[in-house]
Design a protein that fits this description.
alpha/beta, Purple Acid Phosphatase, chain A, domain 2, 5'-nucleotidase,  domain 2, eight-stranded mixed beta sheet, six-stranded mixed beta sheet, 36 strands
């Protein structure tokens, strides 16, 4: 998260000014830069506030006011423009097998693509979630955006698309839609360069296929030099690096960048918070808006950094003043809260050829309602899928999901006769809520497991490799980690301090491993997981070395099938207690470690890892 104590808020007078030779300017200019990030398909809103129609209404009102005041206006998205879930699944159903928008640019297209067109962005940055379904889906999404009338470029300077034919085609030609940067000429005639950048963690946390990731600073600086050479010296970096602290660290390596818009961290920056900038149940404030870097860049300048909390809940509105030499002389502004309960600015009607209500909000609402009405069973126990839980501790929902994986493999095949265990990454469990007792619907399943992951089996997994994976899983506890593994078929204890795995048994009590003895089992295991984890996602290189047998069933369908066919439609409190099944146990070692030799730690010293 953003390091508030290390970031200094400076007045405009404290921003160092460096005159850039060789670029002519007619006059000073005033820019209002509107921005958001991490929309993540939350077009119908999230919690008490947000919703794309109100987001667009507030954005249009603010843009009109800035234009009326004689200011240049730009609108930029800093990535994660769609995300697996109900809305995106509804989009996949609409698109079908043809290129998005090729048959019908509106009704055979992604809802999120239509939203980007309606919003009229000047640049759209590529985040990590754009690659979650692979390069071909991203290429289809961009194609759908163009078919619906979108004109902005999708930008990232540090990604090389040449290894993926579908994206390489979009990056080819004289004026491609997929680019390192874009130049926008504002109403005043001033030109603004916008450079994109994507997190170097992309291969670990998403599925970019043959897209290669380069050094961010080198790529941004090279593109900035190219823009300067073309006579553009008002340069904005729109990056998606997962945390504003990463952009702060980047500043000292950059040159010629005037402003940085960050994405991926979901931080809320605001000044003098009031009802217009914060919501009662909204995120905590992480710092002032804008924040000015505590370090200088290679030109000796401090750089303004901004970001917003995501899901269409806020609009950043950064005001930047440039002198005749193209240098930043002052920065200001504040985010705009999108609150349907108080806003009078709902977008109703057609914007850039998209009718917001008829083409996005109403049909998407109907699609989601249909999924919510499809009951597949019920639960007698609250199911904990909260992000803070599934990424740090065992939960009963994690137990249920991994049990479903193991059961699905037992129904289909791919097993060798070795003991069968299951694991899944907490980052693939997406509902971020506790599902209350009551009906369980198809919408719930999509909300829990929305990605296109299939269930796979890794045969011949050694105990040593399993322990390596388990120690990687708990290495960051208590910090959240998308790679934290929920498990089935095993129980293990780990040291709360060193994070070493101390003991692993099969669910029937068969001992596999102790810290003192190592592998005491001597055999191998069949490990069932999702295809992302099985291919080494989240940095699990130990799994990538095995050949994955794909069951041909999505991980969401495996859960659905398990609930219906194995559990008879009822998830019982007895089978899945709220506190979990004691599969993952944190031990207050080292003081009690010696008790493992006596085999009594489970009775005397085990402390359940609280969910």
């Amino acid at each position: 998260m953003f390091r508030n104590l290390n970031i200094l808020m400076r007045s405009a007078a404290a921003i160092a000014v460096a005159v850039t030779p060789g670029v002519a300017h007619a006059a000073a200019s005033s820019l209002t830069l509107f921005h958001n990030n991490d929309g993540e398909s939350k077009l119908l809103g999230s919690g008490d506030f947000g919703s794309f129609d109100y987001f667009l209404g507030e954005l249009n009102a603010a843009r009109d006011a800035a234009s009326t005041a004689g200011r240049d206006v730009l609108t930029v998205s800093s990535g994660d423009n769609f995300l697996a879930g109900l809305a995106l699944n509804a989009s996949f159903d609409r698109v079908g097998g043809s290129p998005a928008g090729s048959v019908d640019p509106i009704n055979q297209n992604y809802y999120d693509a239509l939203a980007l067109v309606a919003a009229g962005y000047d640049a759209v940055t590529l985040g990590n979630h754009e690659f979650d379904f692979g390069p071909d889906v991203l290429a289809d999404f961009i194609t759908g955006y163009e078919n619906a009338g979108g004109t902005a470029k999708f930008i990232s300077s540090n990604l090389d698309f040449s290894g993926e034919a579908s994206l390489a085609a979009l990056a080819a030609g004289v004026d491609p839609v997929l680019a390192k940067s874009t130049v926008v000429t504002a109403a005043s005639g001033e030109k603004y360069g916008i450079i994109g950048a994507t997190t170097p963690l992309l291969p670990t946390i998403s599925s970019p296929g043959g897209v290669s990731v380069g050094d961010v600073a080198a790529a941004v600086n090279a593109e900035a030099v190219a823009l300067m050479g073309a006579g553009v010296d008002k340069i904005i970096l729109s990056s998606h690096l997962q945390s504003l602290s990463n952009e702060e660290d980047l500043v000292s390596l950059l040159q010629n960048v005037d402003v940085i818009i960050a994405g991926g961290g979901d931080e809320l920056l605001t000044n003098a918070p009031d009802a217009n900038t914060t919501a009662p149940n909204g995120p905590a404030i992480d710092g002032p808006y804008p924040t000015v870097s505590s370090t200088t860049d290679l030109d000796g300048k401090n750089v303004a950094l901004v970001t917003t909390s995501g899901e269409y809940r806020y609009i950043g509105a950064l005001e930047v003043e440039f002198d005749v030499a193209g240098n930043v002389t002052s920065v200001g502004g504040n985010p705009i809260l999108v609150d349907p309960a108080t806003s009078t600015n709902q977008a109703v009607g057609t914007f850039n050829g998209i009718n917001v209500q008829d083409d996005i909000i109403n049909p998407l609402s109907a699609d989601v309602a249909a999924l919510e009405a499809e009951v597949i069973g019920s639960t007698d126990t609250p199911l904990d899928g909260r992000r803070a839980s599934v990424r740090t501790v065992e939960t009963n929902l994690g137990d249920l999901i991994t049990d479903a994986f193991v059961w699905q493999a037992q129904q289909i095949g791919g097993l060798t006769g070795d003991p069968v265990i299951g694991v899944t990454n907490g980052g693939g469990i997406r509902n971020d809520s506790v599902i209350d007792p009551g009906d369980l619907t198809t919408a719930d399943i999509f909300g829990i497991l929305p990605f296109a992951n299939s269930v796979v089996v890794l045969n011949g997994v050694t105990v040593d490799d399993l322990v390596t994976a388990l120690e990687q899983s708990v290495a960051n506890v208590p910090a959240q980690n998308g790679g934290f593994l929920q498990v089935s078929g095993i129980r293990f204890d780990f040291d709360a301090i060193t994070k070493e795995v101390l003991r692993v048994t099969l669910e029937d009590g068969t001992l596999l491993y102790t810290r003192q003895q190592g592998d005491v089992f001597g055999g191998t295991l069949d490990l069932v997981t999702n295809s992302f984890t099985g291919a080494g996602g989240d940095g699990y290189a130990v799994f990538a070395g095995y050949t994955a047998f794909d069951l041909g069933v999505s991980y969401g369908d495996a859960l659905r099938n398990f609930v219906i066919d194995e559990l008879g439609g009822t998830i019982s409190l007895a089978d899945y207690p709220i506190e979990g099944l004691a599969r993952i146990n944190k031990v207050p070692a080292p003081a009690m470690a010696w008790l493992f030799g006596l085999g009594v730690v489970g009775l005397m010293a085990r402390r359940r890892f609280a969910a």
